[in-house]
Design a protein that fits this description.
- The protein is of the alpha+beta class.
- It has one domain (13-111): Glutaredoxin.
- The chain has 4 helices and 4 strands; from the N terminus they run E-H-E-H-H-H-E-E.
- The chain has a 4-stranded mixed sheet, with helices on both faces.
- The longest helix is centred in the N-terminal third of the chain and has 12 residues, at 22-33.
- The protein is globular, with a radius of gyration of 14 Å.
Length: 126
């Protein structure tokens, strides 16, 4: 498994990080303070493709509309609106990863958006 791929085992953790985002930095600090091992993917530099985004949506248990940043100028520029299909939303996030909500932590077959940052700690309650 590449360091960048979504985890394939229950003990593998991937942190989809944007170091320019305060919430993302807060999640990083929480993971570090907890001593949690994780791999980090700077998703703006190494974007997820549509297949990875579809898989991420399944692990989040959320429709793409629930984790796309609709307030971004890129959302309107992509011609997206409240009626956009899941495929259109995923394609837009793949083409312009700033549209993906952040931060996201993936552990095994589950994922959480870190808003609020402590939400990601649910992944480690076992």
């Amino acid at each position: 498994m590449s360091d960048q791929q979504l985890p394939t085992t229950a003990d593998a953790v991937l942190f989809l990080h944007n170091p320019n985002c305060s919430k993302s930095r807060a999640v990083k600090a929480l993971l570090d303070e907890a001593g949690q091992a994780y791999r980090e993917r700077l998703y703006l530099e190494s974007p997820l493709d549509t297949a990875e985004l579809a898989e991420l949506g399944e692990r989040l248990g959320r429709h793409p509309r629930e984790w796309v940043r609709s307030g971004q100028a890129e959302y309107q520029a992509a011609g997206l609106d409240a009626n956009s299909s899941p495929d259109a939303l995923l394609a837009a996030m793949a083409a312009d990863p700033i549209l993906m909500e952040r931060p996201i932590v993936v552990r095994g077959d589950a994922a959480r958006v870190g808003r609020p940052p402590v939400a990601v700690l649910e992944l480690f309650e076992d």
